[in-house]
## 1
Amino acid sequence: MNVLAIDPGSTSTKIGVFIDGKLHKTTIEHKRDVLNSFKHIMDQERMRFEVIDNFLKENGYYNIKFDAVSGRGGLIKPIESGVYEVNEAMLKDLRDGVNGFHASNLGGILAYEFSKRFLCYAFIVDPVVVDEMDDVARLSGFKDIERKSIFHALNHKSASRKAAEKLGKRYDELNLVVAHMGGGISIGAHKKGRVVDVNNALDGEGPFAVERTGGLPIGDLVRLIEDKKYTTKELLAVFSKKGGVYSYLNSIDMIEIEKRIKFGDRYAKLVVDALIYQVSKEIGALSAALEGDVDAVVLTGGLAKSTLITQGVQKKVKFIADVIILGGEFELEALVEASLRALNKEEAIKKYI
């Protein structure tokens, strides 16, 4: 089986070509001025299609007989975990931003366009809106606002399966607390294969991250608006792109920030220590959601490559369970692996309604 995997991010497009049993990966970075030339993120569809198309042609992949094209799922309606065939209902909701707009909305659209080219299946897998939360976790404390399940589901599920392999068990046999740490941070309680609680990593819940604010004191936030220091539109941009580590240190380059700490920058160390502290607190909270019955804590995502951060978190949470570190992201691998399970009829292909 041959699979083309497409993972559109905010500043790059990741491509995976699985042929002859091997996965070939590449990341194409998009220049900031090119991205800024588009008024809306959905206007980038043609540009990203041509970038992928050129890559396939230049690397001799154009004549491959692909069995499926698998794209990272976007902000569609809440659905259960799994492999979904892209259909008209999904395309409409991706384009309309039924649950918001994000670069990942382009994943299913691009998969569909390339599937027409290669005459094969178009899939999405475990989109960010996977919703398996327990009802008790949905109550926010205010009747008009319900907690939402929006998180790095694709990498959560992939890392969980890898952790299960290390433990010699199936994913649905384990209770795990999984922390995806990157530009955004999502931490979930995985109970026998279901993510029964998780922070909304997009709209401001949980720990602060490299660019995102995480949860903020509500009263102070309201007063910022009352004092007209920010409009609501400006604040939404701050929450997702100008918060977290960036708001304190004016940088999202964690390698550079760690160098600053190494050379004695006390303020940079305080900020990173605070990130470690908040991540660890959230892991503790999610272990309570599992009533303390935790088989392992899993650290994954780009920041899990940082020894400074993983050692800091491990020191604080090792009393809960053993810590498994899976540095990096496994989205392309997860897209391919899930597609193969579906093609080989080991997992049902679901229909989006």
## 2
Amino acid sequence: MKSVPKNEQEWQKALTPEQYRVLRKKGTEAPFSGKLLHADKNGTYMCAACGNPLFKSDAKFDSGTGWPSFDQSIQGAVRQVPDNSLGSSRMEIVCARCGSHLGHVFDDGPTKTGKRFCLNSVCLDLEAGGQR
């Protein structure tokens, strides 16, 4: 996958302040505040920073956590990175194309995959279309 050759100044100009804080500085949006939490349109969820297709709408479910959740990503779209911040051990997920922070993945999902990819809405754009 081709990477996105931008430095942090370029990212800061390309993104909104909130997107930059979350995507590039590994922030978290407030729970139950994201624009895509209750989105139910058919389509593909894309990285808001670089447009990389990340998740299909049929993988989305309501986890009750306050963030959009998915049970699987599009193959090769995200990378998992160990995250030992905040006194706990978790797996961060980043966009495989641009390296932007998206959220975390947990092994407590209710579907057959057992995964819960917990995303920040501000990191995503929904490209509508297709079947759910």
## 3
Amino acid sequence: MAFFLETLIGGLMAGMLYALVALGFVLIFKASGVFNFAQGAMVLFAALAMARFAEWIPQWTGMDNMVVANIAAFLIAGVCMFAVAWFIERLVLRHLVNQEGATLLMATLGITYFLEGLGQTFFGSDIYKIDVGMPKDPVFLLESMFEGGVLVNKEDVIAAGIAAALVLLLSIFFQKTKTGRALRAVADDHQAAQSIGIPLNRIWVIVWCVAGVVALVAGMIWGSKLGVQFSLTTVALRALPVVILGGLTSVPGAIIGGLIIGVGEKLSEVYLGPFVGGGIEIWFAYVLALVFLLFRPQGLFGEKIIDRV
């Protein structure tokens, strides 16, 4: 039972991190109605910016306090993501208002390659380290209930807590604020939103800025766990089944989908892997997403689109 709980908790922790990346997809889709393939590149660019500025700031200032250096690096990286969002809206999205979804999709593919090249040019292509002081030592819980206790990684718990707090804030933002309601209106119909005075360009800048902050937090956490390298863009691919499962328009759906995928991957690898030779964790999420596409393509919490003629 203790081993099952360890696996279950590990899956929940991983699921919260998947949900954090999936949030970037949901945010952009809710505001523009397009699937943002540039989210992985945004995570990479944000992580590169934070890692490199955390390295450069002590060299420039002679500062020895790494906590202050990391905070300053996070803020500067946030400004960088705001600048990226502004340039994307100014140079790309502004000229594609009311275009077909396929056109916007291709634009995000172009943004992906641009950000990857820009990150390599400014920050280099080596493997960098992000150290924000999160403890990496495991801890044993519930020792009084189970012999030996349940082994839990402190870093995973803290990372999941950060992800959960950010998800909660975004849910409140979308449901309770005037800007959040405007974002949803823009996603439903660009032309109708413009006709009632909602400034489409400003809304897109806001949502890309929010998605940039989400990418920065995700990049910080994943960079702390895995190191900052260009393979970090593949984290976004692991989040695609989460979006399909939860629904493209649902913030809560990203959370539930992430938890289901995270737990499913861990449990299937541990309990089914020995019977099929292992490797289930790699493809489990995609098979589950395929099943949902066949039987419930809008996802668990997505809105079912009905065309009336």
## 4
Amino acid sequence: MLIFIHELGHYSVARFFNIRVERFSIGFGAPVWKRKARSGTTWAVSRWPLGGYVKFAGDAGSASNPDAAALDRIRSEEDDVSDIFHFKPVWQRALVVLAGPVANFILAAVLFAVAVLWVGTRHPEALVGEVEATSPAALAGIQPGDRIVEMDGRPIDDWVSMAQHIQLRGNTPIKTVVERDADRIALTVTPRMIEDEDFVGGRMTRGQFGIRLSSDAQMETRRYNPVSALAFGSDQVVNTLSATGRYIGRIFSGREDGKQLGSILRIGAMTGKATVDVAKAEVPAGERVRNLLLVMLNLGAGISVALGFANLLPIPMLDGGHLVFYGYEALAGKPLSQKKQEIGFRFGMAILLGLFVVLTINDIGYIGSLLS
């Protein structure tokens, strides 16, 4: 579904600009089902369901790299070439390419919104209970009963937002303000890196202060109408993108090992494990179905954001790589030469194959942690 929505974003904007689309495919390889629409587009489900593509007239392949020979033939054989993607203004091509990731971000916001519209959200105040001895919090001077109100200049609304801020800042000092007996005290806490379990029991690393939520913390339950739910969903998309960007930045700075990045095997493992856990819960069948739908809504939203983000990476063959080429064309007043584009696409393929190997190794280690 997530891939379909991504490709539908490309397709819809292309058709808005009256661009000729030859094929809309979910999966790669030989089609196992196909149907030709009146518009001339062949809709297909292909053998290898590891992605999808929209192929425009004049494309050399599924990555929408131009086929110089095919474009020359179209010019010589057709009087009207205004519906050819590669002959459209650069800003229209850029919007078509950008539409795929944007469709994923919109879908994620809607999925997040449906989840909170259904059950609302719970927000425990950031009130400290137990402080572990010799933990980063204890060494910095945090005490039981302190209320954490600010981190790195950002207000902290609840325990969840506090934990999310700490999680991606292991071994990085955090300027923290606590409220104690009506006084505000500024402290600097450096979270330690620990190995922990994610929501399905897989191994992950994260930053930790060494504090626990107080049993006296007040709990706020928030309900949403359609407008406020969509606003919440949009905020979640922005926060997820920010967290993803921060994590990747920490990989390049050597503060993370990158093992939290995964691919299709991890998606399958997480989905399967979440389904099994919900099915085993000793609750009425109706509640099990409800819980499973909520898990899938949130998991699907998170993966949709990741799919949009990954496609915006400036790697040839991905949407972000096309946008880099179009940016050059807009600045230089002419497209990058066919030969240089081909070199770029080959380089991009090599990068993607390398990433596939790394992510598969990560996925195997993650699945192993689920089984241990």
